[in-house]
Every structure is written in C-alpha cells, then in structure tokens.
C-alpha cells in the first residue's frame, strides 16, 4: 500500500512532462463560488448558533455544511475544467461524486466550531487541521477521478505545501470568525463575516491551485498530443455552477424560512412580554391617538379608577379628568406635543385629579410620552396613583409637626451638632432659650453664632470635653452660665452619629436642667446628716432609756419578788402580784423597743440549740390561755402528728414571735376563737395564727409590718401597745431565715403565717441552770447612784450571808477600792461624777502601777446593747450582769468570776416549777386566777367536762385517729397547767409524747382517770368555800350603784382607783366573774368593751331578783 502511494511521487528522469494552461474566466468563477459558498456557510452557522431548538440547529448545520461542501466541490471541479492540457480528459463519475463527501465533512467541522460562544486556541488549531485536511482530501480525491493518457504524479514538496496552505488558511478563517469578531464588536465593526468568507474561500482555492501546481503529467511512450474542445469545459462549468447555486438557493430558502419563524416567534414573545408588562404594571398606561382618543389601556387603570376597559376605549382622554382640567387635554394639546416646535411639551408630567367610575376625584400623577408608528402619531400616558404617596406625605407632615411640637415642648434641650471643635449646633429646639436666655437662632446661624461650649462653667470644661471624646454614647453633668450670669446644673446625654459615605460626623443629644435636683441632693445630704445625727441621738437615747427605766424597774420587780415570798393576805398578795406583773409587762414593752433597735442595727445575736417544739408551744398557749378565757375566747391548738419532737433553732425568738402574734390576736378579738396551727414542711416548719377579730383594711394591711404603726390612732388609744410587735416578728423571722405573710378581711379576722427553716433532731439539748451555789461569806462593794438598787442588792446579799458596802459614783468607788478589802465589786456603768467604765479603767491602771492583783469587777447595768458589753470588757471588767436583778443569775456570775465551783442540773421542761407529785398547786393557780374561789370554780367546771373528754379520747384511740388524740391531750395539758393541776398536766404531757411515737393505747387511760379523781378528792377536802372566804357581800342594789360608777368612769376613759380597789376586796357571788372581767378590761384600757359588759350586767340584774344565786 505504501509503495503504491509513494509511486505517485516518483517521476522517471527520462519522462516527458506535459504542461497546460488555465482559463482565467473559469478561475475567477471558481474563486467566486468558493467565497460565496463560504459566506453562506458562515451566515447559516451564525443563525444556528442563535437557535435554541436543538433539532433546528442540527438542520441548519447540515444545510450549511451542504452549501460549503458543495462550494468546495464546485470550486474544485470548475478549477479542473479551467486547466487546459494537450490531451483529452474525462472524469470517473463515481469518484467525482464521492469526492464531494470529504468537502462536506470538512464544512460540517468548520460550521460546528462556529456555533460555540467561546473557543480556545487548541480548538481553533484542531478545527483548522480538520478543515484543511478535508479540503485537501476532497481536492486530491477529485483529481484521482481524472481519466487521461498521461500519468498523474505529484511533486512532494508542493504537495505538502498545499496541505499546509489549506490548514493555515482554515485556521486563519476560524480565528477571524472568533478573535476578530470580539475586536470588531468592541469597535463597532460589522464586516467580520465577509472577511472570514474571503479568507475561507482563499483557503479552498489556494489549496486547489497549490495542489495543481504539485501535479506532474507524465507522457507515456508514444504519446501523441491532441487538444480537447474548450467549449465542453465551459458547458460543464455552467452545469456545475448552476447545480451549486441551486443547492445554495435551497439552503437560503430553508434558512430564510427558519429566520422568518424565529422573527415571528420573537415578535410574538415581545408582544406577550409587552402585554404582561402592561398588565402587571403598578401604574396605569393608556395609549391615545393624536385626537386624544383612548386606543387601549392596561389593567392598572381599572384598578386605580375603577373603569372597565370597554367603557373607556374610544372615549376622549379628557373625559377622565376633572372639569377644570378637561380643556387641558383637548386635541390641540396633543397636536402641540407632536409638533416639532413644541418638543419641550413632550416632557409633560403633572400631579392632577382624575375621575373614578363614581365621579370622585382621585389624585394621580400623569406623564405623557410621544411616539410615531409610520404616519400615525401615538401618545403613551403613564398614570400613577398618588393616594398612597399623598397619604405618606400627609403622615410625614403630621409626624414632622408632632416631632417639632414634641421637641419644642419637652422639658429640655434637644440638639444636633457637628462633632468638631467648638461643637457648633446645627439644630436645637426652643427650650434652649428658657435655659440659656439666648434664642435658638443665635446658636445655629452661620455668622457670629454662639457655641454652647462657651457657656460651660470654666471649671467643668475639661470634664465636658473629656466626656465627648468617645466614638459612641456619652453622659456628663456640668454647670452652665446663662445670659443673666446665673449658674445652672445640666445633665447631657449624647451619641455620635456617623453616616455611611459621609465624612461629616454628628452628635445628637439631650440636655436637661437638673438644678432643682442638685438642690434636692444638697437637701438630701443635709437630711442624711440630720438623720445620722438623729440615729446617733436615738442610740444614745435608747442606752439612757434602758438605764433610766430599768433602774426603777429593778427596784419594783426586785422588792415585789421579795415581798411575794413573805406571808401576806390574799388581797395583799393579789395587789402585789398585779404590781409585779405590770412591771414585767412594762419590761416586755421596753424589750420590744430595744429589740427593734438591735434588729435595725443588725446587732441581735441568735442562740441556736436543740429544743422541744411542743414545750415552746405549751408555754405560749399557757401564757395567753387565761387572758383568752377571761374574754370568752376559744384558744385552740392544732399540732400535726408528723411534727418531730425536737428541732434545732432559736426557741427564745420563736416563742417571742408566737407571743407577739397570739397577744395581738387576743387583744383584737372580741368574740370567737383563736387558732395556732403547726405543720412540718419539706424544709422547715410552718406556723399559722388565725383569729376571728376585727381584721384589717387593705391600707392597714400594707402597713402592718411598719415600725410604730397601728391601724389608726383609735387603735392605739383603745388597745394600747407600741406598734412594734408585728415589726419585730417580721425582723426575727427573716433573721432566722424564714418568711412571714399576712392575710386579713375587715370584720372577719386575720391570719399570720410564717415558715422557719428549722431542722428536726433526735433529742433535746440539755439546758442547764444553777441548782445550788455554796459561796463563802463575801465582802461586796456595790456601786450605783440609785439608792433603791443599792438597797435591793444589799438586802439580797445580806440574806445570803454576805457583807455589803456601797458607793454612789465611780470616783468614791475608786477611793474605797484603794482602802477597802473587797472580794468583788458590782459596778453600774452610767453614773454621775465618774462612770463605771472610767472607774474600772483607773483601777486597772492603778493596780498595774502598784503591781497588785486585779480586783474582780462585774458590770451591773440596765443596758442591753452589745457595745456596752464590749466597752465593759475593754475597761477591764471580768463579768456582766443585767438589771432588773435576777439574783440566781447574779450569784452564778459572781461564782464564775471568782472561780468557785457550782453544780448545775438540766432545766425542767414542764411549764411550771411546781412539785410534780402534787395534785393542785393552789399558789400558782391563785396567781393566775386572782383568788382561790375563782380557781376552785374553774377547776370544778373543768372536771365537769373531763368525763366527756376522756370518752372522746378513748373513741379516737379505738379508731387510731392519733391526730385527734394528740389534739385532745394537748388541750387537756394546757388547761390543767393553767389551773395548777400538776398531776393531770404531767400525765397528759406524757401521754401526748407517747401518742406522737404511737406508744399510747386505750389501756393507759385509767391512769389519767385516776389523776382526775385525785383532783376531785383534794378539792372536796377543802373546808372553806369560796363564799365563806369572801370578805364581804353586798346586795344587788349596791352592785348596781357600783356598776353605774364604773360606767361613768369607763365612758370618760378614766380609771377610778377607789371603786376598783373596793371591788377587788369584795365577792359578788355568781356575778363575780363578770365583775372581774369588767375590772380587767378597764385595767387593760379597753373602756369600750368595759362599757358593753357593764350595760349587759346591769340589764341582767334588772331581770332577776335581789338575792344572790
């Protein structure tokens, strides 16, 4: 095969080569056909590149390839016909037509590459090689179809050159199509297709004629030349040209049809797009002719004006306008717009009013544009709905007016200033004139403006500038000097505002005149100083009051305690008990005040320990049970069986809170009941005290925990008290980590509930008390400026076998300590001439100077302040004892200071100190009930209900209702304790403890019955009845006269000692209890209640006879 191919390039040296000539006309024809065919191919390729239909794109590429391939084939064949050789030449039909295929394939490759949007160099190179090779293949296959006598051989260099020329020019043509096209588009040149067609045509013809130049015609031996008729070549050239033009014509026809279809589709798409734009446009669009007649409109016109399209088509546009504007849009108006002399009128745009389908004016903005379609002049009217814009403008104007009014009426300066040196104001409201005295214009005008910084006080300018050195917000207070030279305090808030793409920085701020506030601050500082001075005076007053009030109380309580140990008549014992009780009540009020002071200062210390919670509850209930009974109140206790026996807490303060709450409940409840409920909670115990008393209003409830505050002034007059009880309760509960709430309804009662975080423990902590102290006889120096205190202490110490000397002040005491041989000194702190602290300090200095042993000194004071204890220790005192004197405690303190040993025993847990083996403690019962007859009567009343209580107790035990069992036993223990029934109280208490541990049964009840029977037996043995022990009896007439006198005194809120003393010394039979209740009310200053009870008793006396029941 290779040898056969190489034989085409071997020419024997002895061979005769034949030469020929070309017909110039046919050469020109061949070149023209190749260029025209190339142009048509590029045109079709461009149309195919823009087509989005893949099938149509393939058809166009096929047609373009047919056109270009046919052009290549026709050019080659005409070029062969143009060559005249001295021998007849014929062509093989089959080979000639097959030579068409390489040209068409080359054309397809070229056109396909032209449909790409972007082509790289490699693609241009490959496309050029394929196109050039295809042209060469077509040329040489066409020459192979020649049939002639000479042999056809080729010159190898020229053969190769023909291929290179074809490839190079094909690459150049493709580059021109892509590279030169981008350059031409940038510079607005549109001839790139022609240039590319010429280059491609040259590539085809150049390759052909270069290949013809490479051809060598070798004459065979015996060759005889003969000329062929030239007319045949022209005829064949004509046929080929016609055939080629037919093919190209078919391509043109088909492509034209496709172009028409594309243009029609684009036109339809454009129409639909315009319709869609018209229908979806927000603004109304109306088309009118030169006469102003409406031709069409979009849907927005109907939406804006409400007109239907069919109602407006053919109507003059002027009919849509208000009557005052109809003449504006007549035919002359549109004639002016279309006139070339009135070009400025074509820019018409105005805010007008159009009429809707209800003939109501609608604000619109009308813009008119002019266009011309052939000879017809059309006008496009754009109509925008102005209602929303006008509403927005109105809103903006209203907001601007509001903001301007706001800025002008706010009590301060609102401003905007430049963030530059001097801070010049750009905007400021009128309030600046009221503050500075200068108008707002004086700060914002361009010439000779006033800078706000110039008005700042010189001493504050540095702070003012420092505050403004920030990139965000700032706050500063400074002084400003106004136009009249008056200094005012200003508070300024501001923030830096940086606007994007703007080199200007602003400061927006607000300045408020705070001169009055500064004056108020000065007043508050002065008030604070005065309050601190008042607090110091209060502390000093409390210390002095503690001393001055406790000193006489020391004598009252001490001497009354001594006298109560003497043998007295019942009347004397009763009066003395009243004195002692009243003094202790006064001490309780004083303690409330002092506790409140210590709580306010946070000086109150809590003593946490284990305690029996039921004992604390019993103590409180026992204290107020009698008071409640005298008023006819039912004092109930509800203790949960789930409550532990012992807790870790502060029993004294718990008892104080319960005392205050139950005391108030008894005081403010006229009838009904009072209930104390105790229940365990997850983190402590809840206590609730409820009553059916007078209740409180919402206003009173809001002040219930305020110090020294009661419901109103009448409450203080009627019920008395300091108004500190509930305040101390709240402070104590919170100090112990709990919380307290109150609810009340006027006329229906009050409920106080508090919770304490106390934890249950296994057993009660042993609280010790002094059992016995055996001190040797001591020589004691008592130093006090109050003679009663000296007399009381001397009496107590002398009874105990000690000798006593005394001094009236610290100076005399210091001198006596130098000369006297004392074992211990009891020294008051607050005394004239020299106080106890100074005397003790001087003694310690004197002892140190003389090298003497320290003389024990015990501080003896009525003060309860912790600071006084610390001062006493700092002065060198070894001990501390409180007034009023508790003699056992004083002896224990003396023994501790002197170093004597003494024994202690566990403190009794029962509510009474009576002998546990005794049946009835008449002494304690008489102290509580006032006289023996009343006590016996109350015991009999208790015994009359005991049988029923025992029955209920047994029934509860049978059904195992331990909560009711505990409640019954607890109530029995409290009542029996108040009646002095020691044996019954102890048995009930023991049963209650057993019930809590589920160790009580019905078989244990006979023990309680036996205790009750013992009470009946001992009561029966009393030989003297209550009536026989009465000092004197009076008749009912005398009782009425006494009641009338008491009524007069009660109505005047007075207390007649003569009548009261007389009543206390007489017995009034069955009315004695009522009389005693009246006396108790008057003693408690509850005069209104006393008046009610006196009237009730007088009415009862009038209804009965004259003899005693």
From TrEMBL:
Coiled coil (UniProt feature) = 517-544
Topology of the protein relative to the lipid bilayer: Multi-pass membrane protein
UniProt keywords, alphabetically: ATP-binding, Cell inner membrane, Cell membrane, Coiled coil, Kinase, Membrane, Nucleotide-binding, Phosphoprotein, Transferase, Transmembrane, Transmembrane helix, Two-component regulatory system
Where is each Response regulatory domain found? 779-898
Q: Which residues form the PAC domain?
A: 474-526
Provide the MHYT domain boundaries.
22-218
Q: Which GO terms describe its biological process?
A: regulation of DNA-templated transcription
Its EC number(s): 2.7.13.3
**What are the annotated GO cellular component locations?**
plasma membrane
What's this protein's name? histidine kinase
Q: Where is the HPt domain?
A: 931-1026
Q: Key word Manganese present in the record?
A: no
Q: Give the Gene Ontology MF terms in alphabetical order.
A: ATP binding; histidine phosphotransfer kinase activity; phosphorelay sensor kinase activity
Q: Phosphohistidine (modified residue): where?
A: 970
Catalytic activity as recorded in UniProt: ATP + protein L-histidine = ADP + protein N-phospho-L-histidine
NCBIfam families per UniProt: sensory_box
Q: Which residues form the Histidine kinase domain?
A: 544-760
Pfam families named among the record's database cross-references: HATPase_c, HisKA, Hpt, MHYT, PAS, PAS_3, Response_reg
Looking up InterPro entries in the UniProt record yields:
CheY-like_superfamily, HATPase_C_sf, HATPase_dom, His_kinase_dom, HisK_dim/P_dom, HisK_dim/P_sf, HPT_dom_sf, MHYT_dom
SMART domains, A to Z? HATPase_c, HisKA, HPT, PAC, PAS, REC
Specify the PAS domain's residue ranges.
270-315, 418-461
Q: Which domain of life is it from?
A: Bacteria
């Amino acid at each position: 095969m290779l040898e056969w191919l190489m034989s085409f390039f071997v020419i024997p040296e002895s061979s005769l080569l034949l030469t020929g000539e070309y017909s110039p006309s046919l050469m020109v024809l061949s070149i023209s056909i190749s260029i025209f065919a190339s142009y048509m191919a590029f045109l079709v390729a461009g149309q195919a590149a823009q087509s989005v239909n893949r099938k149509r794109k393939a058809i166009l590429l096929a047609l373009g390839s047919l056109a270009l391939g046919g052009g290549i084939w026709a050019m080659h064949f005409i070029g062969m016909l143009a060559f005249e050789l001295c021998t007849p030449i014929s062509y093989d039909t089959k080979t000639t037509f097959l030579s068409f295929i390489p040209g068409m394939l080359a054309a397809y490759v070229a056109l396909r590459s032209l449909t790409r949007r972007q082509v790289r160099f490699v693609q241009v190179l490959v496309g050029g090689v394929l196109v050039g090779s295809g042209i060469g293949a077509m040329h040489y296959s066409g020459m192979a179809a020649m049939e002639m006598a000479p042999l056809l051989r080729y010159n190898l260099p020229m053969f190769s050159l023909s291929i290179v020329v074809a490839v190079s020019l094909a690459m150049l043509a493709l580059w021109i199509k892509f590279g030169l096209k981008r350059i031409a588009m940038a510079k607005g040149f549109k001839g790139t297709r022609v240039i590319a067609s010429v280059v491609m045509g040259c590539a085809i013809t150049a390759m052909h004629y270069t290949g013809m130049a490479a051809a060598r015609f070798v004459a065979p031996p015996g060759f005889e030349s003969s000329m062929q008729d030239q007319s045949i070549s022209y005829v064949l050239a004509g046929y080929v040209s016609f055939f080629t033009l037919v093919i190209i014509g078919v391509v043109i026809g088909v492509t034209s049809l496709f172009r028409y279809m594309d243009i029609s589709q684009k036109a339809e798409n454009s129409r639909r797009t315009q319709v869609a734009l018209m229908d979806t446009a927000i603004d109304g669009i109306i088309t009118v002719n030169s006469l102003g007649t409406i031709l069409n409109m979009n849907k927005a016109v109907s939406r804006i004006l409400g007109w239907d399209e069919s109602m407006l088509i053919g109507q003059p546009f002027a009919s849509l306008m208000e009557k005052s504007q109809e003449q504006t849009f007549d035919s002359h108006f549109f004639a002016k717009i279309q006139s070339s002399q009135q070009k400025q009128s074509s820019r018409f745009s105005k805010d007008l009013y159009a009429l809707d389908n209800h003939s109501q004016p609608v604000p619109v903005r009308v813009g008119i544009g002019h266009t011309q379609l052939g000879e017809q002049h059309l006008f496009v009217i754009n109509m925008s709905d102005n209602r929303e814009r006008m509403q927005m403008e109105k809103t903006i104007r209203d907001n601007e007016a509001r903001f301007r009014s706001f800025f002008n009426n706010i009590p301060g300066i609102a401003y905007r200033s430049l963030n530059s040196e001097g801070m010049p104001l750009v905007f400021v409201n009128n309030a600046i004139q009221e503050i500075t005295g200068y108008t707002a214009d004086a700060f914002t005008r361009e010439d000779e403006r006033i800078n706000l910084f110039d008005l700042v006080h010189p001493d504050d300018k540095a702070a003012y500038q420092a505050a403004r050195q920030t990139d965000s917000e700032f706050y500063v207070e400074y002084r400003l000097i106004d136009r009249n030279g008056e200094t005012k305090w200003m508070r300024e808030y501001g923030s830096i505002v940086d606007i994007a793409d703007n080199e200007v920085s602003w400061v927006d701020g607000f300045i408020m005149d705070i001169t009055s506030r500064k004056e108020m601050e000065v007043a508050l500082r002065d008030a604070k100083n005065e309050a601190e001075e008042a607090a110091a005076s209060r502390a000093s007053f409390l210390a002095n009051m503690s001393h001055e009030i406790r000193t006489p109380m020391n004598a009252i309580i001490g001497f009354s305690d001594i006298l109560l140990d003497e043998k007295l008549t019942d009347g004397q014992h009763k009066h003395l008990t009243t004195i002692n009780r009243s003094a202790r009540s006064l001490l309780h009020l004083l303690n409330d005040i002092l506790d409140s002071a210590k709580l306010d200062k946070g000086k109150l210390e809590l003593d946490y320990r284990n305690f029996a919670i039921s004992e604390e509850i019993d103590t409180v209930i026992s204290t107020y049970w009698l008071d409640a009974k005298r008023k006819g109140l039912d004092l109930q206790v509800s203790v949960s069986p789930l409550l532990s026996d012992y807790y870790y807490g502060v029993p004294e303060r718990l008892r104080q809170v319960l005392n205050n709450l139950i005391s108030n409940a008894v005081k403010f409840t006229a009838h009904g009941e009072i209930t104390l409920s105790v229940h365990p909670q997850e983190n402590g115990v809840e206590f609730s005290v409820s009553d059916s008393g007078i209740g409180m209003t919402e206003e009173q409830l809001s002040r219930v925990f305020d110090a020294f505050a009661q419901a109103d002034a009448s409450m203080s007059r009627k019920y008395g008290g300091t108004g500190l009880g509930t305040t101390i309760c709240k402070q104590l509960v919170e100090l112990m980590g709990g919380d307290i709430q109150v609810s009340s309804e006027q006329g229906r009662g009050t409920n106080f509930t508090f919770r304490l975080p106390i934890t249950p423990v296994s057993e009660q902590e042993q609280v010790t008390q002094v059992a016995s102290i055996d001190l040797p006889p001591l020589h004691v120096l008592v130093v006090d400026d109050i003679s009663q205190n000296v007399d009381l202490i001397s009496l107590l110490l002398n009874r105990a076998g000690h000798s006593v000397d005394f001094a009236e002040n610290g100076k005399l005491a210091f001198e006596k300590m130098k000369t006297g041989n004392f074992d211990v000194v009891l020294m008051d702190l607050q005394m004239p001439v020299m106080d106890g602290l100074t005397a003790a300090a001087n003694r310690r200095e004197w002892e140190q100077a003389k090298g003497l042993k320290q003389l024990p000194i015990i501080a003896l004071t009525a003060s309860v302040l912790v600071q006084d204890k610390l001062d006493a220790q700092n002065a060198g005192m070894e001990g501390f004892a409180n007034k009023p004197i508790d003699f056992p405690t004083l002896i224990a303190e003396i023994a501790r200071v002197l170093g004597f040993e003494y024994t202690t025993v566990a403190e009794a847990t029962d509510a009474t100190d009576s002998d546990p083996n005794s049946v009835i403690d008449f002494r304690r019962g008489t102290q509580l009930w006032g006289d023996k007859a009343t006590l016996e009567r109350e015991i009999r009343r208790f015994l009359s209900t005991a049988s029923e209580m025992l029955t209920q107790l047994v029934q509860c035990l049978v059904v195992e209702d331990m909560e009711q069992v505990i409640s019954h036993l607890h109530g029995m223990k409290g009542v029996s304790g108040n009646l002095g029934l020691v044996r019954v109280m102890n048995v009930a208490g023991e049963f209650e403890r057993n019930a809590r541990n589920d160790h009580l049964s019905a078989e244990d009840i006979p023990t309680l019955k036996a205790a009750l029977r013992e009470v009946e037996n001992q009561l029966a043995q009393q030989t003297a009845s209550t009536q026989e022990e009465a000092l004197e009896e009076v008749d009912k007439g005398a009782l009425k006269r006494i009641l009338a006198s008491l009524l007069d005194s009660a109505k005047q809120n007075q207390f007649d000692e003569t009548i009261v003393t007389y009543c206390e010394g007489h017995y009034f039979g069955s009315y004695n209890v009522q009389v005693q209740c009246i006396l108790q009310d008057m003693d408690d200053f509850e005069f209104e209640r006393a008046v009610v009870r006196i009237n009730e008793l007088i009415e009862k006396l009038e209804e009965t006879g004259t003899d005693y029941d």
